Amino acid sequence: MRSSEKSTVAVICKSRTELETMHRAGLVVWNVLEELRQMVRPGMTTMELDQHAERRVAELGARPAFKGYRGYPAVLCTSINEEVVHGIPSPKRVLKEGDILSLDFGAEVDGYFGDAAVTVPVGRISAELERLLRTTRESLDRAIDQCRPGNRLGDISHAVQSWAERHGYSVVRELVGHGIGTRMHEDLQLPNYGEPGRGPRLREGMTLAIEPMVNSGGPGIRVLDDEWTAVSADGSYSAHFEHTVAVTAEGPWILTRPREVEGPSW
Ligand code: MF3
Ligand code: CO
């Protein structure tokens, strides 16, 4: 989400029952994203992906979270190459071999939300782009690992920033992760940069959408005339991965995937 100025903060911690409902929303998100990532091929349009997602989310008994949100016109965000996030699906946008595509999708079930994203290769991509995708996904893995009671928000932010910058990349500043629950965007805002040991303490039942956005060049972005699509200011490639995660006494719980899936976040 776009970061905003806000003075009062009210973090809502969720009960076990609420987390189970969020997990049901999260499983819809995961299932749709898994289907989409396997459909991606050179020659197809981003609108075809959006139409598939719209049909499947209804079949799975959920409501798409993005469509109509502040006037957003589609079910998915599809962001290609230098597009960072919030790319709008279009029948004119044809995927080509060597592109990277961020698929971002949210769903609502029984009043609770899940939000996740994955950046996938279109056909074969360069070794350098594979490294960008791997590093960004690893920055999410490391951020998720910080989601434990007693840690601080800055520990999550720092995990993303330090891993991305160690590999020569930069993190976007104007866009942040966010609390999530009965609304898609709740307090807190979660920057992808920060100091370890700083910020609010993490408590059991907190639920965060963690979404590293990593540019291969500089950190700057601008928003296109469509008023949605964020692109890197220098035209460099950008990758984006996201999961909805709960802080629990047993450790991080990735709500946007099945329990039995283990290992890397995507
Ligand atoms: N994951 C994105 C975010 O949290 C998705 C929002 S797209 C919107 O900002 F269209 F709904 F805004
Ligand atoms: Co999000």
Number of helices, where a helix is a run of at least 4 consecutive DSSP H or I residues:
4
Order of helices and strands: HHEEEEEHHEEEEEEEEEE
CATH class: Alpha Beta
**What is the averaged pLDDT score?**
98
The N- to C-terminal Cα distance equals 20 Å
Rg measurement, Å = 17 Å
Outline the low-pLDDT stretches.
none
| Sheet with the most strands: spatial strand order | 8-7-9-14-15
Helix content: 25-40%
In this structure, how is the largest beta sheet organized? 5 strands, antiparallel
Shape assignment: globular
The fourth-level CATH homologous superfamily is Creatinase/methionine aminopeptidase superfamily
Class inferred from helices and paired strands = alpha+beta
Number of domains: 1
CATH architecture: Alpha-Beta Complex
Your description of this structure?
By secondary structure, this protein is α+β, with helices and mostly antiparallel strands. The chain has one domain (16-254): Creatinase/methionine aminopeptidase superfamily (Creatine Amidinohydrolase), CATH 3.90.230. 27% of the residues lie in helices and 25% in strands. It has 4 helices and 15 strands. It has helices spanning 16-39, 46-59, 127-145, 153-166, and strands at 63-64, 76-80, 83-85, 100-109, 112-121, 170-171, 177-179, 186-190, 207-210, 213-215, 221-223, 230-232, 238-240, 243-248, 251-254. A 5-stranded antiparallel sheet has the order 8-7-9-14-15. Strands 1, 2, 4 and 5 form a 4-stranded antiparallel sheet that branches. A hairpin with a 6-residue loop joins strand 7 and strand 8. Helix 1 (16-39) runs antiparallel to helix 2 and helix 3 packs antiparallel against helix 4. The longest helix is centred in the N-terminal third of the chain and has 24 residues, at 16-39. The model has no long low-confidence stretch (mean pLDDT 98). The structure holds 2-amino-4-trifluoromethylsulfanyl-butyric acid and cobalt (II) ion (CO). The site of cobalt (II) ion has 6 residues, from loops.
